[in-house]
Amino acid sequence: QLQLQESGPGLVKPSETLSLTCTVSGGSISSSSYYWGWIRQPPGKGLEWIGSIYYSGSTYYNPSLKSRVTISVDTSKNQFSLKLSSVTAADTAVYYCARHDEWELPGDYWGQGTLVTVSS
Amino acid sequence: QSVLTQPPSASGTPGQRVTISCSGSSSNIGSNTVNWYQQLPGTAPKLLIYSNNQRPSGVPDRFSGSKSGTSASLAISGLQSEDEADYYCAAWDDSLNGSVVFGGGTKLTVL
Known about the structure:
- The complex is a heterodimer.
- By secondary structure, chain A is an all-beta fold.
- Chain A is 0% helix and 50% strand.
- By secondary structure, chain B is mainly beta.
- Helices cover 0% and strands 45% of the residues of chain B.
- Chain B has strands spanning 9-12, 18-23, 34-39, 46-49, 63-68, 71-76, 85-93, 99-102, 106-110.
- Chain B is globular, with a radius of gyration of 13 Å.
- Chain B contains no helices and nine strands.
- The model of chain B has no long low-confidence stretch (mean pLDDT 96).
- The N and C termini of chain B lie far apart (28 Å).
- Classes of the chains: A mainly beta, B mainly beta.
- The A-B interface holds A 37, 39, 46-49, 52, 60-63, 96, 100-101, 103-108, 110-113 and B 2, 32-33, 35, 37, 43-47, 50-51, 56, 88, 90-92, 96-105.
């Protein structure tokens, strides 16, 4: 059974860079034809897609976040990562990683989510 | 404002049928498939419907999806108390090099 697990600091200072990693177990990132992505949800609000990556390194990003986002993949560790620069309080959210389906949408495998708070 | 438009709330009594709409445009729903997700409080979203009207294994057939033009709908029949949750639609958007767009979510209350 495929499992995804987010990890990283739960507190980030304003103007700094938020860094999270998603570790995939029960399957290989590079053995399947799927994109792997990040989605976030501010407290009490809806879902916002951040971006996705293929094991080859090909990426898609949310246009509204593109200037601050970098998603990378490490196939040797079966992980993919998110970096969001110049964070503000508006970036406080639960961050989820998920495997995307063949239609490029988040599919049936999600991490449990990790809360990242931006505060000094 | 979300790219896809959903009603913020919906409600029904046990046993009823409720529908939740998701309105988009030609660059997203009009030309790509729609997924629906159910999110119970404090948990990660769960895939409910994929490719407009397909149910993953384990999802009851009380849940169904449809799409017409630039709109999609999620229907829940035989409403149960455990269906009380937030529901989100999502689609790929072909504009600006491509991205995933979500609806703002609909809070379903079982009265």
